[in-house]
Specification:
globular, mainly alpha, 51 residues
């Protein structure tokens, strides 16, 4: 997880996970629309996943 990715996950979470796949992007986008904090948490979890 690079510093740039962490900053993107905090500022605009869907942009940070755009290369992880369409499913991850949609989940993070929906969570961000429901509330900023759930989107940030989901983005950080997805970025921290080693798979």
């Amino acid at each position: 997880m690079s510093l740039l990715r962490v900053l993107l996950a905090i500022i605009f979470p869907p942009l940070a996970v755009v290369d992880k796949g369409c499913g991850s992007f949609l989940i993070v986008f929906i969570l961000t629309m429901l509330g900023w904090i759930p989107g940030v948490i989901a983005a950080l979890i997805i970025l921290n996943n080693n798979n």
